[in-house]
Write a structure and sequence with these properties.
Largest sheet: 6 strands, mixed
Number of strands: 11
Structural class: alpha/beta
Order of helices and strands: HEHEHEHHEEEHEHEEEHHHEHH
Distance between the termini: 78 Å
Strand order of the largest sheet: 7-6-8-5-9-11
Number of helices: 12
Radius of gyration: 23 Å
Strand content: 15-25%
């Protein structure tokens, strides 16, 4: 009897030990978004988080804490760098205070799948590791060109006399178009338009309905330029602490997330039609003017990048361009 009880007790201890070991292998990563929870970017990410958590029990979990109310958009990059938060859904334009190179991602002209093959993705991570203490995990938004939205009609690519809300993404370009520029977080744009603090703003083709900006917007200038970049980034020490199993599991789901990026081209077409239905008029130029307008955007973008970080800009331009 004593021997049987001893055997049962030993088995129980071993089972508890195995259970503890299993639990010890699970890691929970804290994720914050630089965009509002009700916006399209977070809405697209939530099912992915749910799937990661459902399939990753005992391995890896993601705790979505919230959006800018948790950490303001322009402070989130530094929070990732310092490890205050493990992961972020963010755009490089929001953390140029950490490193100016973050803004260079808008200049990519090839899909992220190709960036992973031609060395661009590795080149990005070399810079993000060294300068941002971050791991660049995945790009979840593509095929979302930026546009100028304005309440003042123009007949040429000139914003003289207009106050335009910006982020670093298009500061130099809009200034070259003679605009007076004002930097504000997305959450303040509606009020700025309503009060006439700004006449317009820069934003991708999609997403203005998330903030009800369509109510205060009269015109969209075509063509679009650059490509909106929204990505998942991670604190580098936290990334390095992951076991091989955890890292491989996360990578599998990151690649699955990027594989869904075909959504954005369809979404852009739908949003264009929706804007027209909402009464936003399109301002278009002739073919030659449109090409010059778009070329000017990239020329200014790369010139600015070269001024800020010559070696990185040269390396990225060779890998990002068509």
């Amino acid at each position: 009897m004593k021997r049987r009880l001893l055997t049962q007790a030993t088995a129980l201890v071993l089972a508890l030990g195995a259970s503890s070991a299993t639990l010890a292998q699970e890691v929970t990563l804290r994720l914050i978004s630089g965009f509002a929870e009700n916006g399209i970017y977070v809405q697209r990410l939530q099912p992915w988080i749910n799937k990661v958590n459902a399939e990753g029990k005992g391995v890896l979990q993601i705790n979505f804490i919230g959006g800018p109310r948790a950490i303001p958009s322009f402070e989130l990059g530094n929070a990732v760098k310092t490890g205050v938060v493990d992961m972020a859904l963010n755009t490089g334009a929001f953390y140029t205070n950490v490193m100016p190179e973050a803004d260079f991602l808008k200049l990519t002209q090839i899909p992220v799948a190709e960036q992973r093959k031609n060395g661009a993705f590795d080149a990005i991570n070399k810079v993000w590791n060294e300068k941002g203490n971050m791991q660049y995990l995945a790009r979840m938004v593509e095929n979302q060109p930026f546009h100028i939205y304005t309440n003042k009609k123009v007949d040429k690519p000139d914003l003289a006399g207009q106050k335009i809300r910006i982020t670093p993404v298009y500061r130099d370009f809009f200034q070259a178009l003679n605009a007076s520029v004002i930097t504000t977080p997305p959450g303040e744009v509606y009020t700025a338009l309503e009060r006439g603090v700004v006449d317009g703003y820069g934003w991708p083709i999609g997403g203005i309905f998330d903030f009800n900006w369509h109510e205060k917007t009269k015109f969209r200038i075509d063509p679009g330029f650059y490509d909106a970049e929204v990505s998942l980034i991670m604190n580098l020490p936290a990334y390095k602490k992951l076991t091989d199993t955890q890292r491989n599991y996360l990578q599998k789901h990151l690649l699955a997330l990027e594989a869904e990026n075909t959504f954005w081209a369809r979404y852009g077409a739908e949003e264009t039609a929706r804007q027209t239905k909402a009464g936003i008029q399109t301002i278009s130029f002739d073919a030659a003017t449109s090409k010059a307008f778009r070329d000017k955007a990239y020329d200014i973008g790369w010139a600015s990048a070269t001024k800020q970080s010559p070696e990185v800009a040269a390396r990225f331009k060779a890998l990002f361009s068509k």
